[in-house]
Amino acid sequence: MPMKKALSLPHLIFYGIGMILGAGIYSIIGKAAGVAQEGLWVSFLLAALCAALTALSYAELASLYPQTGGEYIYLKNIFPRLPYLAVLCGSMMVFAGISTAATVAMAFAGYLQQFISVPATLTTMTILLVFTVINIIGIKESSWMNIVFTFIEIAGLILFIGLGFQSENFGKVLSTPTLNGAVFSGAALVIFAYFGFENIVNLVEETREPRELPKGILISVAISTVLYLLVSLAALALGSPQELAMSDAPLSDIAGKTNPFLAKALGGIAIFSTANTVLISMLSTSRVIFSMAREKDLPKLFGKISVKRSTPWMASVTVFILALTLLPVGGIEVVASASSFATMLAFSVINLALIHLRFVEPEKERFFKVPFSIGKFPVLTGLAALVSIAFLFFFKKEVYFLGAFVFVVTTSVYFFSRRNS
């Protein structure tokens, strides 16, 4: 049974922007400032470069394989004789999705504490449950909720940028650009803030015109990059990196020094922004699980679609359960970094896969193509692969342990299932 085609280009752009903006600025910018210091804005630029280059690769692959499942489907088609590679990458993206949902749900609970005294764990579990129900109800309903939430979060960031622009310190850090290990470590953390564009490809079977997908990816990355750079400059103008790092709600706390009313408003807006990211990450991750079940790499139970709602309800419930299991793992920084690691690993593989495809099937029809090639070699994709691989070396040891755990579990389940089959 097919899923309902209800999304247009504006819907895709709002999904991309909503996912990207809510995840990073309101939940991870403080921790990143503590790592990168005054070079925070450089970290955002480095992360933007990686995101933009890889976004081009996703846009081309989406034009070649317009099926729900993203990275999993691409690798399944590009390397048909290596099905394990597709399963491993799909599992990593599921891990990244549930990590994002858990991370930002915890950030949501932190911002809500400013208005209502509710146990953080209860709040986190409740928001995950509520959005699971909404995603099961239907793609159209979740899409309209996303549009409303995205408008609210953009308005909040513009207000913060305006406040920072009034400071005489706005832009001062631009005069002393820094490029060192701390900035790269900050970028490895900040790249989490750009994740979301790759999730748009998981909505292709619910999009009226699949050819709009590359536009949706690239436009959402461009708009988000401009906003992120301005917000990072405003944050450094209004407070020190140490102040940002010590806060659980960095933007509202730093704004409160100058404008208490705006601080309260930002705290309220952050609730919508973080909620929006939880909504979209759970939605897109459920589509990956659904795709893997449809392709028989997961039990067909996970591929069940609601007859009345045309949504993969069992996959949505699975995402909810998996996200709950990550809540006790650690603080926001650890879980966010785990999501970043899994996604950067997928980015590396996807870029290398596209390079391979250019050589083995150069004439394969695609309605979008990454520009600038030398012969068959796509230069920008090669650069994206190098940058993505480089980012993999800037994580804490706990993150590598989590990644190894996912690898072992996926490998064990895969080969056990194959043997029994």
Report a brief summary of the structure.
The chain has 421 residues and is mostly helical. It has 16 helices and two strands. The chain has helices at residues 9-24, 29-36, 40-64, 71-78, 83-112, 120-137, 139-165, 181-194, 213-238, 241-246, 250-256, 260-294, 313-326, 332-360, 379-391, 397-420, and strands at residues 373-374, 377-378.
List the defining traits of the structure above.
mainly alpha, globular, two-stranded antiparallel sheet, 421 residues, Amino acid/polyamine transporter I
Question: How would you portray this structure in words?
Answer:
This protein is an all-alpha fold. It has one domain: Amino acid/polyamine transporter I (Up-down Bundle). A two-stranded antiparallel ribbon has the order 1-2. It is globular, with a radius of gyration of 20 Å.
- Sheet with most strands: strand arrangement: 1-2
Whole-number radius of gyration?
A: 20 Å
Order of helices and strands: HHHHHHHHHHHHHHEEHH
The top-level CATH class is Mainly Alpha
Number of strands: 2
Low-pLDDT windows of residues: none
Largest sheet: 2 strands, antiparallel
Residue share in β-strands:
under 5%
CATH architecture: Up-down Bundle
Helix content: over 70%
Please, how many domains? 1
Assign the CATH topology.
Answer: Amino acid/polyamine transporter I
**How far is the N terminus from the C terminus?**
25 Å
Total number of helical segments? 16
CATH homologous superfamily title: Amino acid/polyamine transporter I
